[in-house]
Amino acid sequence: QSSRRQEAFLDPNQSVAKAATEAHRIHERGQSLLPKAFAMAGDPDKNADQLARYLSAADELLAATKRATTKANPAAFADFESGYGDWTVEGDAFGTQPAQGTFKGQQTVSGFLGSGLVNTWNGSDSKMGRALSPVFTIEKPYLHFLIGGGAHKGRTCVNLLIDGKAVLSATGKNNEALSPSTWDLSPYRGKQARLEIVDEAAGGWGHVNVDHFVFSEEKSTDPDQDSLPLLDPALARQIATQQGLIDDSTLLRWAEVLRSPTSDDPSHPLFLWKASAKDPGAAKKFGQKWEDQAKAFEAALKETELLADFDSGDAEGWTSTGFSFDAAPTKSPEWTPGTDGGLVTPAGVLTSAELPARFHGVLRSPTFELTRNSIHLRLRSRAAEVRLVIDGHYMNRFHQLLLKGTILKTGDTDTKGEFRWLTMTGDVNKYVGHRVYLEISDLSGGFVELDEVRLSDAPLPPEPPILGRFILAHKSGDSRAELANAYGATWADGVTSLQNQKAAPAQAAWLDFVWREQLWPRNPDLEETARAMTRSNPPEPLFATAMLDGTPENERIHIRGSHLKLGDTVPRHNLTALGGSLAPETASGRLELARELVSKDNPLVRRVAVNRVWHHLFERGIVPTVDDFGVMGQPPSHPELLDWLATEFSDSMNWSLKRLLREIVLSGTYRMSSAPHPSLDRERLAVVDPGNVLLHRAPIRRLQAEAIRDAILTVSGRLDPAVGGPSVPVHLTSFMEGRGRPKESGPLDGAGRRSLYTEIRRNFLPPFLLTFDMPIPFNAMGRRSVSNVPAQALSLLNDPFVVEEAGLWAEHITADASVSMDDRIVRLFQAAYCRRPTDEERQQIESFLASEPDQKQAWSDLCHTLFNKKEFIYLN
Amino acid sequence: MHCRRYRSAPLSRRQMLSQFANGFGAVALSALLQDRTFASSTSGINPLAPKTPHFPAKAKNVIFLYMDGGPSQVDTFDHKPMLEKYHGKNPREAIGKLEPTQFDNIGIVLKSPWEFKQRGESGLWISDLFPFVSKVADDLCVIKSVVSKFPEHTSANYFLHTGSGLQGRPSMGAWTGYGLGSVNQNLPGFIVLNGGLIPPGGLDCFNSGFLPAAYQASVFKPADLPVANIQPLEKEPGRQRRKLELIRSLDESALDRYAGEEQIDSAIINYETAYRMQSAVPELMSIDGESEATKKLYGIDAEFKNTQVFARQCLIARRLVERGVRFVELTCPNGNGDRWDQHARLVDGHTKNCLTVDQPIYGLITDLKKRGLLESTLIVWGGEFGRTPFAQGTDGRDHNPFGFSMWMAGGGVKGGISYGETDDWGYKVVDSKVEIHDLHATMLHLLGIDHTRSTVRWSGRDMRLTDVHGHVLRRIVA
After folding, report:
1. Pair (A711, A804) in one structural domain
2. Which of A198, A92, A206, A197 is nearest to A149 (CA)?
3. Is the pLDDT of residue B43 over 70?
4. Are residues A608 and A589 in the same domain?
5. How far is B340 from chain A (nearest CA, A)?
6. Do residues A712 and A622 both lie within one domain?
7. Which residue of A489, A741, B175, B362 is most buried, as measured by CB atoms within 10 A?
């Protein structure tokens, strides 16, 4: 397992590398600008003060906006903002005026509009009463209203009365929050009616909350009502000036973030500020909760095993490929513009975000023994993939039935800009005791920053919000002003620490948040640097499946090949028979092995290489057992020739296969005829060299499967000689069945592309090629079998591909009407056999053509016949 | 007509062909009469030429009834009263330590929902799932102690078919062709009659691996045209004949270019064979000529549609054996639940699967016996592994490679016996363990092949179907 199979990055023209170097240069410039960019307000006190001011000014802006827009609400039938109006009120539950929100001692009432509502708690559930609206005529089809409170049917409710009877009724849900309710009034259109609010219940939830009756033409409440009103820039400018803020556009950002529902989440950095506006006790309440969480979390951490935290500035054994990862962890908080807008990364993190997301990379952990059921990763990412490679099995994405939980897919790893713990579990527990490594990639155009990796058997409880706890610990009083000051101080201290190249994690998180959400005025220099960064445009990555170095590991002997019967550990080394030199301690030894294989002292590899080429050209190697030069193989027929070629190949030809091919095909031996020289005595040949091992003539060779198909395409004129490109899906016949059958078949003629580019699906191999001995692609096969069976005749006779190409060939050959029959026949022969027809052959063909009245058919049949003539696939 | 006569005299070869100059059809006709002569004249090149076995064979042909998915031994041929006694108990307490199963969703000890009875004179235990097969119990040799190395379908299928859990090794049918060649040059030596389910692992269960491609299985669809390229595309019958005439005369004119090379002669003869195969194969697949009684015997008229499908496969298997095809494998029809792989709904799945194969298998054995072919035809029934004696979930059984049942009939095995034992639960083998390699060794032995001597040099060593393993089960050989 010292080597790892992977999709290795290719960068043929170093174009990605060059773009990356340039991007790194820009990154360094941005990095130097960072402290200045944060410290715009001047000294730390001013910075702290400014941030606190932004916070309270944002509150003011939001309140003013709310006041401005509430007035604009559509006319309500009753909104209980200024008394009961024409409503008739009975009993003691309603009081003399509608309630102003929550009564003292009541749970918080929410969801009403404006400040007034009907709230029949009025001091206690025991109070009862009734309110009746004036009579009205139903004109619109819908009535919208808000209702909360008790769920007692008919007793804590709103009723629609027609002729004194309740035809519609609604209650609360035993909840103080009012929620929208809509009645369909269309059956009652034109009728006289009254609305009635009832509180006849005295026990638990014996009250009702009602507000905001609106008649409407629309079934749903106006959709625009849900969207937040636009913030008024003029208002923002006014407040910014009053409060002495650096600018007003940043204030608008603060207001947007504060009113967004995402800041209602306790893990959100501004949660405390927002919650304390509604509930002065929020800080205390959550402070306690977070302390409890922290205790539980710390206790759980103690039970885990730390794999890596990168805090010492070291990532020993972690490796990266590609271009986006810095192999060393961040030593101080860093500008990481790898996402839109850029962010700040704390110290002690491996990050791929120093460069824009268009640069890709893969990070790999050292190989380690899996000791626990679950792996927890603290990271921040978007569209990254994390996977566990177990025992070097890198195909786990195709075996999810047995390896659930070993991949965190790109969709699962969006941490919304924060560091979070993600867990790999599921089938991970099945592989405890195995050798594994983590592979973390940002290939889908996102980024990933890894802070810590731990292993555990128990689940990890939630980590309390790091910034929230820090703010609480550093605020000096309970008022909101003190809270704002704590946010400000954390900011200013963070900026100072940044200048000193060290910031606490909470400070870095706060800097990052403020920067990412644009809650601090932009520094134009840094903005320009970020823009320069986005201009670098590396090409899409290319990959090749390859084995690259991993963590050096020694394997144990598998006794009789069984992974269940393990013997001694054996140090990594070359085959004992080939010298057995040991691999270096710090690497797999692949490189050393490769060097040994091609070293001057090693004749084996070049002998094998030239022998293979010889085999391909003569259909028989100088050593016929091309895969076996050992004692089980056969001896060479021409040992001196083999050694001469091998030495030439490595020395004067500099390992160039092209030059080797040229050398051989220009030789007299290769250019011989397959008929023995007339001067040779055939009787003697039959005794001396019956198998033509000594090459007294050229061997008769059958074309290989792929070459037969390519030859057919070539003569028919269909061949697309383009080099490279995606493979062509295999053509599926109705006889190719089984699991994993592709939904669609490829074209019959493989789009005219060379057989090399036909897609290889292991269970759907191309039958035409298989018939002509294309080997199955699971094993190395240095020498193909050359069979000679009727199925090959059936293929050439009846395969629709062959017939189709014959028709195409005939079309081409007959396209020019001025060419005589004789010339056409010559052309056919030269295309197919590289020779002119004999007179006998010409006569045979002419009489064949004459016997067929339909000339188009006749030529097509002739072409088909010429594919079937043995000379087409047997070279002589 | 030995080929070597023509080695250094290509013109003689031409003369020989011209003796058949009455036309291609005439060549084909005379070749049909002299099949073996043609075959031997190309030996050394034609991989399917008949070869002499190592010793006199008991069986000439094999029909492998492949039960895809893994039938449950404790519901079919391995009677375990203890399961009734302990039904509903926690298997970890009743049985003891359990091996991990594929899904590790272990339920109760689960008794068989079917009753077992002793059948025939031999008194073999067979459950009520097989009323028809029970009638020929005295022909069966039930092996109750088979084990596999793999608890997962794909690897187990490769292992069962090729003796290796890895993809890409030659299938046992390919080894049979390699060892014995084929007596019928018009048909492949190894045919898979596809009932509708290609097993997990795909067509590579039937491949020739590192053996020449000629030994790989031809997978026949249950249709009149079962394989590709068997039907001439020419619409009028005379057209292909005219083309073949021209091919022959052009080849003949150019013969001396090839210095009498044997492979050219063979390739020419292949066209004659191919021509005959075009009619031989459709004839083979047609069962119109079979009597109504025969069709009924197999269950062609059964109510259950899959019984009809499998009945037709069994009947065609007999026709293949009659024509000398060495190795015939039948795969199961689709639509009985997920093959025999009853991780849930055991009763429903196994009932349908048994209903599918029971009568056709009975028909096949009875018909072969009647025609005197059972003695020379080895029938093998089984899946890639068995199933757990305890439940998966509530109503299924998980994979169990530690002890399961297969059976053989005909072809030189003793009838009416059982071999080997599993423990009281039908969970693990306790007596006379049979590895898949032993099964292969025995099958080859019955065909007259010594599995240790049937080798091919590949990848630096002499490869065998049985690798370095395998013992012939001599106790079951008649």
Report:
1. yes
2. A206
3. no
4. no
5. 16
6. no
7. B175
Q: Which pLDDT tens digit goes with each residue over A265-308?
A: 888 999 999 998 888 888 889 999 999 999 999 999 999 999 99
Q: A792-818 pLDDT, tens per residue?
A: 999 999 999 999 999 999 999 999 999
Set of chain B residues whose Cβ sits within 8 Å of the Cβ of A774: 213
Domain boundary among A581, A597, A613: A597
> Quick count: other Cβ atoms within 10 Å of Cβ A621?
26
Look up residue A35 and give its two tokens: 């402290």
Nearest residue in B to A846, CA atom: B246
ipTM > 0.90, yes or no: no
Query: E-strand spans in A230-384?
Result: 305-308, 319-322, 334-336, 343-345, 350-351, 361-364, 368-369, 374-382
Pairing of strands B190-193, B327-330: parallel
Report whether pLDDT(B18) > 80.
no
- A639: confidence class by pLDDT, cuts 50, 70, 90: very high
Q: Is A468 helix (H, G, I), strand (E, B) or coil?
A: helix
Look at B263 and A702 and tell me if their CB atoms are within 8 Å.
Answer: yes
**Separate counts of helices (H) and strands (E) for chain A:** 22, 30
3-state secondary structure of B383: coil
Question: Per-residue pLDDT averaged across A857-870, rounded?
Answer: 96
Residues of B in contact with A871 (CB under 8 A): 251, 254, 257
Instruction: Decide: A386 and A424 in contact? Cβ < 8 Å.
Output: yes
Full residue range of the structural domain in which residue A102 is found: 73-227
Helices B305-322, B346-370: inter-axial angle, 10-degree rounding = 30
* Half-sphere exposure for A654 (CA within 13 Å, toward CB): 0
Contact A404, A383 (CB under 8 A): no
CA distance A642 to A650: 12
CA angle A681-A685-A691, nearest 5°? 155
Domain end (from A572, A597, A622): A597
Looking at the structure, tell me whether residues A582 and A659 fall in a common domain: no
Residues A518 and A495: their CA atoms lie apart, in Å, by 15
Chain A interface disruption, residue of B246, B272, B458, most A CBs within 10 A:
B246
**B 243-302: CB under 8 A from A:** 243, 246-247, 249-251, 253-254, 256-259, 261, 263-264, 266-268, 270-271, 273-274, 277-278
Q: For tokens 């850029």, what's the residue?
A: A342
For chain A, the domain total comes to 4
Q: How confident is the model at residue A261 (pLDDT cuts 50, 70, 90)?
A: confident
| Nearest CA among A408, A425, A413 for reference residue A459 | A425
**DSSP 8-state secondary structure symbol assigned to residue A33:** H
One domain for residues A107 and A158: yes
SS3 B65: strand
Q: Do A774 and A812 share a domain, yes or no?
A: yes
Query: What phi and psi, each to the nearest 5 degrees, are found at residue A125?
Result: -65, -20
**A564 and A637 share a domain?**
no
Question: Bigger pLDDT: B143 or B335?
Answer: B143
| Chain B residues touching residue A837 (CB < 8 angstroms) | none
d(CA B366, CA B138): 12
Query: How many H-runs (helices) and E-runs (strands) does chain B carry?
Result: 14, 18
Residues A592 and A617 occupy one common structural domain: no
Going by C-alpha positions, the residue among A566, A602, A567 that lies closest to residue A581 is: A602
Q: What is the pLDDT of residues A115-148, one digit of tens each?
A: 889 999 888 888 899 999 999 999 888 899 999 9
Q: Decide if A667 contacts A837 (C-beta within 8 A).
A: no
Chain A positions touching B42 (Cβ under 8 A) are: 788
Angle at the Cα of A251 from the Cα atoms of A250 and A254, rounded to 5 degrees: 90
Q: Which two tokens stand for residue B199?
A: 């097993």
Amino acid at A449: E
**CB proximity A844 to B under 8 Å:** yes
Q: Give contacts of B189 with chain A, Cβ < 8 Å.
A: none
Distance CA B73, CA B70 (A): 9
